Amino acid sequence: MFVAISTGPTTHLDHLAPLCYLLEIPLIVTEPEHERLGKKFYPMVDFQYISLEDLTLDYIAHHFDAIITCGKFWAMQLQPLLEMLYGKQIRFIFSPHGNSDKEAMLGLPVSQDIDLIYGPQMRMEKSGGEVIEIGNIRFWFYKKHQAHFDALT
């Protein structure tokens, strides 16, 4: 199964929801408030709540084959454990959340199977792995659902 998972701040919903809609995959959130906000602002996306306590390595290994996340360290922290404990290789896809993803500031490369980027400026930040330029899909998503978002404002 291919999913997106958000365990971070609510602002990550704004980046993951358009991708989930485009790819027709669920967006799993670990906070009930994030599910509530997601369903309010993005009713066209399949939001699913799984508590952080239930989103264990065992659950991940047995339910997912690929995960999109805004978290920079998911792959680095989880891939070795999933391979060692479960013999499972999961693809981790990093979704950018703004132009603040400056790996150089971290002092180490961020390891993901695939990095989605907005454009050439972000490509310069990447030090390896597969990089796919997706552009600003948030704007496309807004235009597609403009009536909904304008009604909210």
Regions with pLDDT < 50 over 5+ consecutive residues?
none
Strand content: 15-25%
Q: Note the main sheet.
A: 7 strands, parallel
Beginning-to-end CA distance, first to last residue: 35 Å
**CA-atom Rg in angstroms:** 16 Å
Largest beta sheet: strand ordering: 3-2-1-4-5-6-7
Fold and architecture overview:
The chain is an alpha/beta fold. The protein has helices spanning 11-23, 32-41, 57-63, 74-86, 103-106, 120-123, 137-144, 146-152; strands at 2-6, 27-29, 47-49, 66-69, 91-94, 114-117, 130-133. Strands 3-2-1-4-5-6-7 form a 7-stranded parallel sheet, sandwiched between helices. Helix 6 links the parallel strand 6 and strand 7. Helix 3 crosses helix 4. The longest helix is centred in the first third of the chain and has 13 residues, at 11-23. The radius of gyration is 16 Å and the shape is globular. The mean pLDDT is 87.
